[in-house]
Design brief:
By secondary structure, the protein is mostly beta strands. The protein is built from 1 helix and 12 strands; from the N terminus they run E-E-E-E-E-E-E-E-E-H-E-E-E. The strands form 2 sheets. An 8-stranded antiparallel beta barrel has the order 3-5-6-7-8-10-11-12. A two-stranded antiparallel ribbon has the order 1-2. A hairpin with a 5-residue loop joins strand 11 and strand 12. The two termini are about 25 Å apart.
């Protein structure tokens, strides 16, 4: 059974970089921010797993996808997040956890539109308008 995760994290010392224009708030940088994944492609997650994304100042992203650690390079262009090929550890977990992990990694492998909900929540929107929701740690 899959349940949505509701997690309140601690605020990081870095703030999300944005630019406000007539077309709305554009996210220009995720440098030095850490996020907990709340949902992936409109699907809830198992409660006991804490999937994470950490964006470094050197355009590197790393995180935990449910069973394995991953890392790679990213860039933001016109509020679109593009993550390059990810390197990952290769542990094996239960089928349910591996499914959830593959769902996240597949989402991160495609261009995603960034949308800011508030100071601590962003959405990554795929080309099917499915939403992956992140909450700042």
């Amino acid at each position: 059974m899959i349940f949505p995760i509701l997690i309140a994290g601690c605020q990081t010392t870095s703030n999300l970089s944005t630019h406000t224009s007539t077309s709305g708030t554009e996210i220009t940088s995720l440098d030095n921010t850490s996020w907990v994944v709340q949902s992936v492609a409109d699907r809830g997650l198992m409660e006991y797993l804490s999937l994470t994304l950490n964006f470094k100042s050197n355009s590197e992203v790393e995180g935990f996808s449910g069973c394995n650690q991953f890392k790679g390079q990213y860039e933001i262009i016109n509020s679109r997040l593009e993550i390059g090929t990810l390197a990952s550890t290769r542990k094996y977990c239960s089928k349910v956890i591996m499914y959830q992990e593959q769902l996240l990694l597949n989402e991160l492998s495609q261009p995603l539109v960034l949308s800011q909900m508030d100071n601590r929540v962003i959405q990554l929107i795929n080309n099917k308008n499915e939403i992956t929701r992140l909450m700042m740690q």
